[in-house]
């Protein structure tokens, strides 16, 4: 028999090397039955089978009469390809070290390298192994294609599940894809997963199988982050915690953002939307043109930093006595970005959606109704009445001052007259009433002196902190002396 290599070399058993001349080696034969024999040959040294070559084995029989098989054209050569190269599979997605919001598909490439003879083997299958290391009290587990368990050793065949080779037929190089409907739903937020992939070729008897795994190539580790960042709007100059605000210049907005495990590494992943309502129409702030627009598309801005903070600098565009809304949205560093994980604005009021903010920079006004205007006389004063107008935030308080002058000013402080001026009399208004009539009843009536002129002033403050610009003032004279009646006609000359 002869052994020919595809580069036209023949094995020379006598010298244990390849030769350029055709050489047949003698075999031993064993009679099986009748005229049927079994032949075999045992070489003195191992044949150096080189990968990448096709080999042809040609047996040639010869009987005792020296009749040679090749003389009658009955040779039956067999060809085989020798493949001793280990195939390789690498992972393209996910990327090593990624934070993943989901992972339903794993993809990559695979190839069987050419041997020294230039030929390459054929891929048989790609297998994926996924491990979930011990975490949070849970033991180390392995994916069997439908669920996690650790019933067998880590590298047991049951945990190497098969991917799909993208190119049909016997090929030496191809992409591959691994998809399991159950996989993503079984990946837990905050857990780390190690994914390995191996290739196997068609070489007999059991195929060359990849056994070396290189980090970031055939072995990757990912961390699942399935939860959106937690956002809160904590500051918008709401001094009185009532959503009634009075910016004195630039409007400062701020809040908090927390996310684990991936985090938010750039402010561009945070978007802020500011809107207002005027006559039933909602307008959205467009920072690119520093003006309002009724179209909400792309009317958003990133804050100054990832903490987050933002300053509305167009103070002249903050129209008073209107309702405003602030919304914040964000997405973390996990991939892919998904709407369900925080990239959409909230639709209902929450910590990241503050509605019904009233910006009110208009000072309120007030008027005293009782006691009346200048010249009014009273022997006592049990109550004071008036009106207040505080659109749109509503009136908060009306500050009253009652005083008289006697070498200096004296003010009613609730139970006595004092020389130090102050807002001793305060009427607290019902919440969020724009225009109202109010009454202040003294717990202890002021002690008024007959013939003395008294002064009463009122100044209101609204729920946004605006103070009335001027005092509403009335004066009155205390008159405790009744009138005297005298008869003139008829004249009584001797009154008794």
Characteristic key phrases:
496 residues, mainly beta, seven-stranded mixed beta sheet, 0% helix
Write the layout of secondary structure elements.
Elements: E1 2-5, E2 9-12, E3 17-19, E4 28-33, E5 36-40, E6 54-58, E7 78-81, E8 88-93, E9 99-100, E10 105-111, E11 123-132, E12 141-143, E13 148-149, E14 161-162, E15 164-165, E16 173-179, E17 192-201, E18 219-224, E19 230-235, E20 244-245, E21 251-258, E22 270-278, E23 281-286, E24 291-293, E25 309-312, E26 322-330, E27 353-359, E28 365-370, E29 376-377, E30 383-389, E31 395-406, E32 408-412, E33 417-418, E34 425-428, E35 435-441, E36 453-462, E37 472-477
Parallel strand pairs: 9-18, 20-27, 29-37
Antiparallel strand pairs: 1-2, 1-6, 2-3, 4-5, 6-7, 8-10, 10-16, 11-12, 11-14, 11-17, 12-13, 15-16, 17-18, 19-21, 21-25, 22-23, 22-26, 23-24, 26-27, 28-30, 30-35, 31-32, 31-34, 31-36, 32-33, 36-37
What global shape is seen?
A: rod-shaped
Indicate the low-confidence ranges by residue numbers: none
Main pleated sheet: 7 strands, mixed
Strand content: 35-45%
The assigned structural class equals mainly beta
Rounded to the nearest angstrom, the radius of gyration is 48 Å
**Strand tally, please?**
37
Quaternary status of these chains? single chain
Q: What is the tally of helical segments?
A: 0
Portion of residues in helices? under 10%
Estimate the mean pLDDT confidence: 91
Termini gap: 174 Å
Question: What's this, in brief?
Answer:
With 496 residues, the protein is mostly beta strands. It has no helices and 37 strands.
């Amino acid at each position: 028999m002869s052994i020919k290599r595809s580069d036209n070399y023949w094995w020379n058993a006598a010298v244990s090397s390849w030769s350029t001349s055709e050489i047949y080696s003698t075999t031993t034969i064993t009679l099986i039955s009748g005229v049927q024999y079994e032949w075999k040959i045992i070489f003195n040294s191992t044949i150096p089978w080189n990968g990448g070559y096709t080999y042809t084995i040609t047996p040639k029989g010869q009987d005792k009469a020296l009749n040679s098989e090749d003389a009658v054209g009955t040779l039956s050569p067999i060809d085989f390809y020798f493949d001793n190269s280990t195939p390789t599979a690498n992972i393209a997605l996910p990327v090593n070290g990624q934070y993943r919001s989901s992972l339903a598909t794993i993809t990559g490439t695979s190839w069987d390298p050419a041997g020294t003879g230039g030929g390459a083997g054929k891929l048989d299958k790609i297998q994926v192994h996924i491990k979930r290391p011990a975490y949070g009290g849970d033991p180390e587990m392995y994916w069997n294609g439908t669920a996690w368990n650790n019933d067998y050793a880590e590298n047991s065949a049951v945990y190497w599940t098969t991917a799909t080779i993208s190119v049909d037929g016997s090929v030496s190089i191809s992409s591959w894809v691994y998809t399991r409907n159950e996989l993503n739903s079984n990946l837990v937020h905050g857990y780390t997963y190690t994914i390995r992939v191996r290739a196997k070729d068609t070489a007999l008897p059991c195929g060359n199988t990849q056994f070396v795994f290189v980090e970031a190539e055939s072995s990757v580790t990912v961390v699942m982050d399935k939860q959106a960042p937690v956002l809160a709007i904590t500051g918008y100059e709401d001094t009185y915690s009532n959503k009634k605000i009075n910016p004195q210049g630039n409007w400062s907005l701020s809040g908090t953002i927390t996310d684990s495990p991936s985090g938010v590494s750039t402010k561009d992943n945070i978007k802020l939307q500011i809107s207002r309502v005027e006559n039933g129409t909602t307008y959205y702030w467009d920072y690119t043109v520093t003006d309002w627009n009724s179209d909400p598309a792309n009317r958003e801005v990133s804050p100054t930093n990832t903490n987050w903070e933002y300053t509305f600098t167009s103070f002249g565009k903050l129209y008073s006595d209107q309702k405003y809304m602030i919304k914040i949205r964000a997405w973390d560093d996990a991939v892919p970005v998904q709407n369900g994980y925080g990239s959409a604005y909230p639709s209902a009021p929450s910590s990241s959606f503050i509605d019904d903010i009233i910006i009110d920079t208009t000072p309120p006004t007030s008027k005293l109704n009782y006691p009346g205007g200048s010249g009014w006389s009273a022997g006592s004063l049990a109550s004071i009445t008036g009106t207040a107008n505080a659109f749109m935030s509503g009136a908060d308080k009306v500050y009253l001052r009652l005083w008289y002058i006697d070498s200096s000013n004296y003010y009613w402080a609730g139970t006595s007259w004092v020389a130090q001026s102050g807002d001793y009399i305060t009427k607290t208004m019902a919440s969020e009433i724009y225009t109202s009539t109010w009454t202040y009843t003294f717990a202890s009536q002021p002690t008024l002196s007959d013939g003395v002129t008294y002064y009463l002033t009122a100044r209101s403050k609204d729920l946004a902190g605006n103070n009335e610009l001027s005092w509403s003032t009335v004066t009155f004279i205390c008159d405790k002396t009744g009138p005297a009646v005298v008869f003139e006609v008829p004249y009584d000359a001797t009154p008794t």
